[in-house]
Each structure stands twice: as structure tokens, then as C-alpha cells.
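User: Structure please.
Assistant: Input sequence and predicted structure:
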Amino acid sequence: MKIIRFEDSVAQERPDGRIVRKLVQQEFGKNIDNWQFLYVTHPIGLREILHSHSKSYEAVYFIDKANYRINGKDYEMNQNDLIIFEPGDIHGAIPIDCDVRLLVIQSPAITDDKKNYVP
């Protein structure tokens, strides 16, 4: 698991006026057959079942602030932060008093790759 804080990224101004921030460059050491992009909305107070993925990597980009439990530790995620989950990382949303929007990129996209953990 790797957390990338937006506030730590460097803004690069381009000649055409764009501002670009490289959040992360990640080598996975394998060919990627496929990937999927998910736009997810968690309702107020959601407690997601803790889970992991046996073969898939996930990059979760936080459009809104959120609270997340990852490998037994709680994290406060800020708007525009990014987490990269490796296979086996146990994670899930913990309740917050607002809706939370996320962009999730998963690769490879494998049906039934999720393992739930019941407390």
C-alpha cells in the first residue's frame, strides 16, 4: 500500500497554461491484460466490509475527503489524495458524515477477486 498526498505533489506549469501534477509513477513488474475505471459514491455513514484482492492492484483517487481502514490502521484521506493498493492489502471505508466520491482504477480487472473479512 502506498499513500500519495496531493499536498506533497509539485505543480508544473505548462506553456499553454495547463497545470500538471504527477501524483505517482508506479512499476508493477508485469504485463497488464486489462483494467477498469470505476466512479464510486459512498453514502453518508457507510462502513464498507473490509476486503482485499488476491491478484488485482487498485488505485483509489479521492474526489472528497474520507476515512479508510488499511491493514489494521485508520487513515484520514484528503480531497485529491491517492492510494495504491497491492494484492493482499486489507481495506475498506469507515463512516464519515458526508458522501464520498472516488475514482477507482483496478488492474487486472478480475471477476471474483475480492475476499471479504468479517470482524
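The two ends are 21 Å apart (CA to CA).
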